[in-house]
Amino acid sequence: MNYTEENKITLEAVQTQEVSRTFISKVFLWMSGALLLTAITAFLMAANFETTLPLLVNMATGQIAALGWVAIFAPFGLVLLMSAAVNRLPLNVLSLLFVFYSILMGVSLSFIFLAYDISNIGIAFAVTAGTFSVMAVMGYTTKTDLTKFGSLLMMGLFGIIIAMVVNIFMGSATMDYIVSILGVLIFTGLTAYDVQKLKRFSAQIGEFNNTAGKMALMGALTLYLDFINLFLFLLRIFGRRR
């Protein structure tokens, strides 16, 4: 190998690292922006519940109004839409859907201000942010292959979803507590796993093009969901209901 070939390989390695860093930074910028938008929306909704709550709940009967059901189920539908149509939708449309999704999640999460004290919400958020940050750094820096844990974590996730559905009918406080603990463990692990997966994907990108932009946004959505679910399970454990 001559000097020119060595320089070429070195240059390609540097370019790959730069593209990888750009991709990861885009992921976390999108995720952070979405979380901020969700938090602002939830806080504004809660601060103006006298005006906003009647739009979501029928105050006479206590039942959820039509707009309330939209706020609850539309985010799930948007996730399915974005995941299924990521290759067909333009990046700007996908971005708008992510923004709209973040706002709807804020509307949905505003209900936690009715169930928990704001101090408990703040503590749960701080613990979530700290835990998420530690696991994200661990997932990015560890040399251990976390792939083998991914399938176990996903099976555990499906398991707690089933347990939560069953507990709707059982109403067991003990099962609710156990599910919440398992949920924290699963989403803590998924955070590290997903960050490592995104890092490995970023190392395979030749250039940061439109497709890479879409993948960065979808990666942000994945980490956003990890953060939100970790926060909600921690809130169920440490938060005292009103």
Structure, explained:
The chain is mainly alpha-helical and 242 residues long. The chain has one domain. The chain is globular, with a radius of gyration of 20 Å. It starts with a helix and ends with a helix.
What is the structure about, briefly put?
The chain is mostly helical. It has 9 helices and no strands.
The termini sit apart by 71 Å
Percent strand: under 5%
The whole-number mean of residue pLDDT values reads: 85
User: How are helices and strands ordered from N to C?
Assistant: HHHHHHHHH
Report the major sheet. none
Characterize the overall form: globular
Helix content: over 70%
Task: Give the tally of β-strands.
Answer: 0
In terms of per-residue confidence, which ranges show pLDDT below 50 for 5 or more consecutive residues?
Answer: none
Computed CA radius of gyration, to the nearest angstrom: 20 Å
User: If helices are DSSP runs of H or I spanning 4 or more residues, what is the number of helices?
Assistant: 9
Q: How many domains, as an integer? A: 1
Helix and strand composition category: mainly alpha
